[in-house]
Specification:
Layout (H helix, E strand, L loop, with lengths): L3 E4 L5 E6 L11 E9 L5 E6 L7 E2 L1 E4 L6 H13 L9 E8 L2 E9 L14 E7 L1 H9 L5 H23 L2
Parallel strand pairs: 3-8
Antiparallel strand pairs: 1-2, 3-6, 4-5, 4-9, 7-8
Amino acid sequence: MEKRDLLDKNRKPIGETTTGEGNVEEGKYIQIVIICFENDNHEFLIQKRAEKKNGKWALTGGHVVSGEDSVTAIIRETQEELGLKLTENELEWVFSKRAYDCFVDMYYVRRNMEVSILNLEKEEVEKVEWASLEKIKELRQKGIFLECHYDCLRECMYFLEKIEEEEKKNV
């Protein structure tokens, strides 16, 4: 079982760890990472989680393990779940926020790739596919897309729109 550092409300380690069994005590937090892959068709890479992981659709991500930083964690999680090697230079940080009993760091990568090249960790991921925002909304409406990942995707879209507006201004 992976150990995770517990953090205070200011995101500072408190010298305690948890294995993720049960809820985190009030006033203590864990850290998670999520990555949004987008291709040139404005589709997003989504994954259907294994049944033992609730079987819902989601983005790629996971927990930051004890002693790890979020960049290392998202690179590790992407390698573990998708068999996809990323470098730190490819990652674009989108935001960090506190939500419920965790801190979330969101990353973005623009990449075109065939899903057939991915080597899925079957213990965690059943399948992956590129999906339009409309399809993701449909999955959410059916209750089969992780709500917190949908919220993060919406925030990522807002971030991307702001970048696009800035780029248009600078042309």
